[in-house]
Amino acid sequence: MLQQLHISNFALIDEATISLNKGYTVITGETGSGKSILLNALNLILGERADFTVIGPKSNKANC
């Protein structure tokens, strides 16, 4: 079970850590708040092919 997601230099996210507790987790927010970016980072962990355009400006790599 995924317990924590740490993202750095990915799209518009400089750095973020999300802890996922047991049970049902819901990610909500306004349009443009970054929900899809979090899901894209999770998809990379699950094996989706990377798109180099999501790498942020602070480094030549992104970490998820």
Care to give the gist of this entry?
By secondary structure, the protein is α+β, with helices and mostly antiparallel strands. It is built from 1 helix and 2 strands, in the order ββα.
Protein traits:
single chain, 64 residues, alpha+beta, two-stranded antiparallel sheet, 1 helix, 17% helix, globular
Written account of the structure:
This protein is an alpha+beta fold. The protein has one domain (4-54). The chain is built from one helix and two strands, in the order ββα. The two termini are 16 Å apart.
Structural class: alpha+beta
Summed up, the helix count is: 1
Unreliable segments (pLDDT under 50, ≥5 consecutive)? none
Q: What is the CA-atom radius of gyration, in angstroms?
A: 12 Å
General shape:
globular
- What is the H/E string? EEH
Q: What is the makeup of the main sheet?
A: 2 strands, antiparallel
Strand content: 15-25%
Strand order of the largest sheet: 1-2
Number of domains: 1
CA distance, first residue to last residue = 16 Å
User: Tally of extended strands?
Assistant: 2
How much helical structure, as a percent, in the residues? 10-25%
Query: What would the average pLDDT be, to the nearest integer?
Result: 82
Write the layout of secondary structure elements.
Layout: E1 4-10, E2 13-19, H1 35-45
Antiparallel strand pairs: 1-2
